[in-house]
Amino acid sequence: GRLHLGRDRGRQPRRQGALLVPPRRRPGPHPGARQPRRAPRRARRGRLGSPEHEGARVEWLPVDAYGRVHPDALREAIARDPAERPRDRHVGQQRDRENQPVRELADVAAEFAIPLHADAVQAVGQLDVDFTASGLSAMTVSGHKIGGPYGIGALLLGREYAPVPVLHGGGQERQVRSGTLDAPAIASFAVAGAHATAHREEFAREIGALRDTLITAVRTAVPDAVLGGDPDPAGRLPANAHFSFPGCEGDSLLLLLDAHGIECSTGSACTAGVAQPSHVVLATGTDVDLARGTLRFSLGHTSTKADIEAVAEAIGPAVERARSAGLS
């Protein structure tokens, strides 16, 4: 009956996870934000503020002008205080619009026997993601970035790691996360993952071409717009483009474009409602005033050439009006 169906659906993402993960690694579905306590933590400001009260020390690694973490920076940070290298010290990095040197970072972490976790939410469905080949100890993915439902994700964890659960009770998910499984979300996540993987190259090619058209259109309409990240298309994720507009407030541009039915963002969903320049953009060495005028345009499988044309028509007048309002 229903119990059997739920169990079968819960196993489906693990079977289809073999598309990304060879058998010696195991995928486990669980809501994206609820990671086991001892899984290597995500390196995201505001989420890593709490480990200090557990005796952990958080150290932020520098990034280059493209937002990339370099392996030498990681090695230097670890070697700076070799006496403080407990086995549960965790290093994490998050992929956003740039392709990070994950394998190289994982190799450095392995030199010091430190588990490395990566947030691959942005990468799956756009890049060739292979957990085993990455050398990572743990990796997270999420359904909502690949056409699946909100609130479902997976933690991919090396078999040699045994996370300590945050929630206790029924013992579900191999006693890592107790609670009733959301079978419909899990099944949908599995289907979305299989589809995104099977059509990844086609998606990257078509959406990457639209992104390049968008970049050209914005630069033509606003010649002094600053493209964020690697100027080489091969070094970027295909589904988004990030700009800074001198003399503008990002929030003003957001409202002006919204009036034209254009949806974009001034930063990631993680920092929604924070009226400050992105700490990620500032870390790249961007001037504070310029960082206040950033916009990120994200594309998906429903994006069309008409969408790009709408942005091209609206962005110039929007920037002009935002500049007339000035920086507050």
Textual characterization of the structure:
The structure is a single chain. By secondary structure, the chain is α/β, with parallel strands linked by helices. It has 2 domains: 2-198, Aspartate Aminotransferase, domain 2; 200-325, Aspartate Aminotransferase, domain 1 (Alpha-Beta Complex), CATH 3.90.1150. The chain has helices at residues 2-16, 71-79, 102-111, 131-134, 183-198, 200-221, 250-258, 279-283, 288-291, 305-325; strands at residues 25-30, 91-94, 116-119, 138-142, 153-158, 226-227, 240-244, 294-298. A 5-stranded mixed β-sheet has the order 1-5-4-3-2. Strands 6-7-8 form a 3-stranded antiparallel β-sheet. Helix 3 (102-111) links the parallel strand 2 and strand 3. Helix 2 runs parallel beside helix 3 (102-111), helix 6 (200-221) packs parallel to helix 10 and helix 7 crosses helix 10. The longest helix is centred in the middle third of the chain and has 22 residues, at 200-221. The chain is globular. Residues 1-7, 18-49 and 86-96 have low confidence and may be disordered.
